[in-house]
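Q: Two folds, back to back.
A: First:
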Amino acid sequence: MMKKIIIPTITALLLTSNANAFDDNKEGFMLGLGIGASSIKTSITGDDSRDTGFATSLKLGYGLNEQLSIYLSSQGDNYKYDGKGKSVNTSLFGIGMDYYFDKNSPYYVTAMLGQGTVNELKKSKNQTGYGFLVGAGYELSQHISLEASYMKVNTDDKLNADTDAIRFTINYTWY
C-alpha cells in the first residue's frame, strides 16, 4: 500500500520540480530528503550498546536568503539494539536551520532542536524527551549534499533512554 503512494509521489516531485516553482535559488520553499548510515551509542535503563544503523532525513521549510534556511525536520535512525534482535527507532522532530558561510560556498552548518523519541518496535515502547542535532555539510553539486552530524536524544521516563548518534547522509534538496 505504501509503495503505491510513495513511488508516484517521489516520481512526480522529480519530474515536476520546475513546474512547482523550484527555481534553483535557495530563497523560497525547500524540501530535502536524505539517507545514510549512523553509528549509535544507546543506554537504556543503564544497559549500554554500540550499534550501526540506517539514517533518514526530511526537511520542509523556507530559504530566507541564499545563506540561511529554516525548516521543520524529522531525523531518524533505525538499528538492532545490542545485536539481540531488538529493533529500535530513534527520531528527532523539530525546528532546524542550515547556514552557508557565503552565498556561493558549498560549505554549511546545520542545527536542530526538538522532541526526541526512542521506540522499541517489538514491544511498542515509545518514550519521548528532548533532542538536538548539530552538523556540517558540503554541497557536491546543485541540490546534492553530503552531511555529517551528531544527534542526541534523551528520555527521562520509564525507559530512561539516552542515545548519541554520529550520522552520515547524502541529501537531495529541492529549492
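A: Second:
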Amino acid sequence: PGTGWAYYWNSFFVHENWDRFFHSEHQGNNTWYYYLEILIGGTLPWIPLTLAAIWQSARTSFKDLREHKGLSLILCWLIPSYIFMNIAQTKIPSYVFFLLVPLALLAGHTLERWLKEGLTRREFWFVSVFTLVEGVILIWYTPVFHPRSMPFLAQLIALGLPLTFASICAFRKNAFGWVAFSTSFSLVLIFIAFFWIEDRLDGTVGSRDICKIAAEVRKPNETLITCSFLGRATNYYLKEKPAAIFVSSPKTLEGKAKENFRPFYPFYSYHALRQIKLETELLNFVQEKGTVLCIGERRDFDMLNTSKVSSVKGHCELLGATGEKPGRAVFRIHSQQFKSDKP
C-alpha cells in the first residue's frame, strides 16, 4: 500500500468522505428510515418520550421557538444534520450517534413539561401502553418466540420489570415514578452487561478470549491470518501482525446488492495487510506455508470449510470457539483435506 500524504489524501478525503457520500458500502442500510430507527431505538427505554418530543416539536415548533429560544439551536443542530447524514449513501450507526445529543435535549424539554404540568390525554395513553408493551416484549414475547434467548431469561426479566413498573406509574399518572423506573432500567442494563454476563458477552463480541486460545494452540512459527474484521484485534492481543487477511473476490459478491457483506478494496481503504482471495489464492498460500492458523468469526470457519467457492473447503480444523452468534473461532487450515481422528 502507499504511504505519506498522497495515501492519506486518497484514503481519508477521497475514500472515507467523497466515496462514502456518493456510494453505499453497506447497501442493506441505505434506506430513508435507517437512521430514524437508530435514533429512536437507541433511546430505549425513553422511546415513548422521544416520540412524544418529536411529535410535539412538529406540532408546536413555531410557538415553542418564540417561548423557548434554546430550541432554535437544538432544531438547527438536529434537522440539517439528520438530512445531510440521510442523503449520504453509506449509512453506519456510529455516523449518527452525535444526533442523540440534540434529540436528548429535545426530549428533556418535553420531560420538563411532563413533570410540571403532567401528561396530556393522548400522551397518557401512548406512554402507558407503549411502556407496558416494552416490558411485555422483554419478559414474555422474547423468551416465548425466540427460544435462543432462553439462556438469558433472568436478564430479560430483570430488564422487563422496571419497564412494567414504569408503565404502572404512567397509568396512575405519576410522571415522576415513570421517570424513576425508566432510569432504573438503564442502571440494570449497565449492571447486566458489565457484571452479570460480562464473560459471555465478551466471548460473543470481543476477541480477547479467542486470542488466548490461539496463543495456546499455535505451533512454533506457524503463520497467522485473520478475517478483515479481526486484523487489528489480533495485532493488539497477540502483539503480532497477521501475515494476511482473507477476502472474497468481486465476482463472488456479484448479485448481492441488497445484502451486507465485508467489502473488498477499494470500498475499504487499502489494508496494510496482504489480502488473499479465498476462492483462488488461499489454498496456494496454505500449501506454501504448510499449515496456517486462522482467527475469525464462527461463520468464517463455516464459510471456508463448507462453501463451494472456498479453495480450502474441507481443509479446516476447528480448535476453539467463544460466545454465541456471531462469536469467534480459531481454526487451523491444512494443505490437504483434514480428517479428524475423533470419532
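Q: And?
A: Strands lie at 223-227, 244-247, 274-277, 291-296, 316-322, 328-334.
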